[in-house]
Design goal:
The complex is a heterodimer. Chain A is of the alpha+beta class. Chain A has a single domain, classed as Cytochrome P450 (Cytochrome p450, Orthogonal Bundle), CATH 1.10.630.10. Helices cover about 50% and strands about 10% of the residues of chain A. Chain A has 16 helices and ten strands. In chain A, the strands form three sheets. Chain A has a five-stranded mixed sheet. A three-stranded antiparallel sheet of chain A has the order 4-10-9. In chain A, a hairpin with a 5-residue loop joins strand 2 and strand 3. Chain A is globular and about 60 Å long. The termini of chain A are far apart. By secondary structure, chain B is α+β, with helices and mostly antiparallel strands. Chain B has a single domain, classed as Alpha-Beta Plaits (2-Layer Sandwich). In chain B, strands 1-4 form a two-stranded antiparallel ribbon. In chain B, strand 2 and strand 3 form a beta hairpin. The model of chain B has no long low-confidence stretch (mean pLDDT about 95). The chains are: A alpha+beta, B alpha+beta. At the A-B interface, helix 4, helix 5 and helix 16 of A face helix 1 and helix 2 of B. Chain A: This is Cytochrome P450. Chain A: Its cofactor is heme. Chain A: Keywords: Heme, Iron, Metal-binding, Monooxygenase, Oxidoreductase. Chain A: One of its GO terms (molecular function) is oxidoreductase activity, acting on paired donors, with incorporation or reduction of molecular oxygen.
Chain lengths: ~400, ~70
């Protein structure tokens, strides 16, 4: 193979719908800095070892590529939607000190304490969605009935969106991200409508503030005089939705599928519900359908464990491949619901690690708790091998999760 | 055991507070880690070790046997 030929073509897929691609093992072993061809035809360096992925993601010098970086594109121009190649003009600082400041302004609203306070609200949302699903009879699609609406309802509560607007919010968020299901015009229209809605919502929070995230940020801006502009508030709201809806919705479906695919896992949780916390993190580690991984554009040379990656390289960090690195995790291909510690990289690492990870963990724990309690007899209504993957580029998941109880 | 936290590295993920709430907290102003118990008791130590191991910013370090 000449040095210009790619070692692999992305995306890689596993044999079964929940299985990791067999290539990950080989790449970690023999080719930890593989040349990969992306669907756009562009080339990137594909990292699969835990230490490499963690060290690059933690490197404060690099962040998500912007349009001016000339980084390798994931999807060809025009495909993959506005979020795919990082050319959305979000008015949020994405690197350095301004990024850190934005993170802290929003992050304080997503602390562990706040999430604990939000938990009773999350529990009642999850309970009522499960009750509605049961009322409609079995088999049901757990992803559509619970996974999809749950995180968007939680984010609506966070942002102070009235309950009657939740389903419109769901639709916009889906159309914004899910490019395979909607036409470009629909996606564009959803984008415009969501922005208009957010602008109106922010104006309303100025005059009639509530207890929500937007009202709090507005109040602080007024006090300190250097808070977020309305434009930044709008993009912060949209960013929370984009980052927190489809990802968590898919994760709920995948987590429950993985737990039910081998029902001894589900039974272990029924016998000992105190395992829910570690089980959620193990599901996050074990998920082989996380999507592409995170892209980084190297503005300068990087030394990774003695090997040099030259400046100008676009890197794809595969967190799910790193999460199965036998150098870090004992029996990485076993789903061990009590695994601790579990330093998986599903939320990234370092200064850009997922700001909403405590929210996501709380949501997943609540959903799992509620399902175990209300539907102990839950089972997959199709053989696990017949589950089908979503054909999305950004967020991996299962199309439907048919269940009975 | 002695616990050290690096506020500059902390990315406010809150994992430590979820795992060991008696030892770690987050500041209300910005979500950055607050060390409540620099010398955790025997029965808190395994949670503290887990919190240090999973911190996404590697902002928690432990001195297992301070002199």
């Amino acid at each position: 193979m000449s040095r210009h030929d790619p070692d692999i073509r992305l995306p890689l897929t596993g044999d079964g719908p929940l299985d990791p691609p067999a290539e990950w093992q080989r790449l970690r072993e023999r080719c930890p800095m593989a040349t990969a061809e992306l669907p756009s035809g562009d080339k990137a360096t594909y990292l699969t070892r835990y230490d490499d992925v963690k060290s690059l993601l933690s490197d404060a010098r690099f962040s998500r590529p912007t349009a001016t970086d000339n980084a390798a594109r994931i999807a060809p121009d025009g495909a993959g939607g506005p979020a795919a190649n990082g050319d959305t003009s979000l008015a949020i600082p994405d690197r350095g000190e301004p990024h850190q400041r934005w993170r802290r302004q929003v992050g304080k609203y997503l602390t562990a304490k706040r999430m604990t306070a939000l938990r009773p609200g999350m529990v009642s949302i999850a309970e009522s969605l499960v009750e509605d699903m049961v009322e409609h009879g079995q088999p049901a699609d757990l992803k559509a009935a619970v996974g999809f609406p749950f995180p968007v309802y939680v984010i609506c509560d966070l942002l102070g969106v009235p309950a009657e607007d939740r389903d419109r919010f769901s639709y916009w968020s889906d159309a914004f991200l899910n490019v395979s299901r909607y036409t470009t015009d629909e996606t564009r229209a959803a984008h415009t409508e969501l922005n208009q809605y957010m602008a109106t919502l922010i104006a309303a929070k100025h005059t009639e503030p509530g207890e929500d995230l937007l009202s709090t940020l507005i109040a602080e801006s007024a006090e300190e005089g250097e808070g977020l502009s309305d434009d930044q508030l709008l993009h912060t709201g949209v960013a929370l939705l984009v980052a927190g809806h489809e990802t968590t919705a898919n994760m709920i479906g995948k987590m429950v599928s993985m737990l039910l695919a081998d029902r001894t896992r589900w039974e272990r949780l029924l016998a000992d519900p105190s395992l829910v916390r570690t089980a959620v993190d193990e599901a996050l580690r074990f998920d082989a359908n996380l999507g592409f991984g995170l892209r980084r554009y190297l503005g300068e040379d990087v030394d990774l464990d003695g090997r040099i990656l030259p400046g100008g390289t676009t890197v794809i960090c595969s967190m799910p491949a790193a999460n199965r690195d036998e150098r870090v995790f004992a029996d990485p291909d076993e789903m061990d619901l009590g695994r601790s510690p579990n330093p998986h990289l599903t939320f990234g690492a370092g200064p850009h690690s997922c700001l909403g990870q405590t929210l996501a963990r709380s949501e997943l724990q609540v959903v799992l708790d509620v399902l175990l309690r209300k539907l102990p007899t839950l089972h997959l209504a199709v053989p696990a091998q017949e589950l089908q993957r979503v054909e999305g580029l950004l967020v991996g998941g299962l199309r439907t999760v048919p269940v009975g109880w | 055991m002695k616990v050290h936290v690096d506020e500059a590295k902390c990315c406010g993920a809150g994992q430590c507070v979820l795992i060991a709430p008696e030892v770690f907290d987050q500041r209300d102003e910005d979500g950055i880690v607050v060390l409540l118990t620099p010398e955790p008791a025997e029965d808190q130590r395994s949670d503290v070790r887990e919190a240090a191991a999973v911190c996404p910013a590697a902002a928690i370090t432990l001195d297992e046997d301070p002199s």
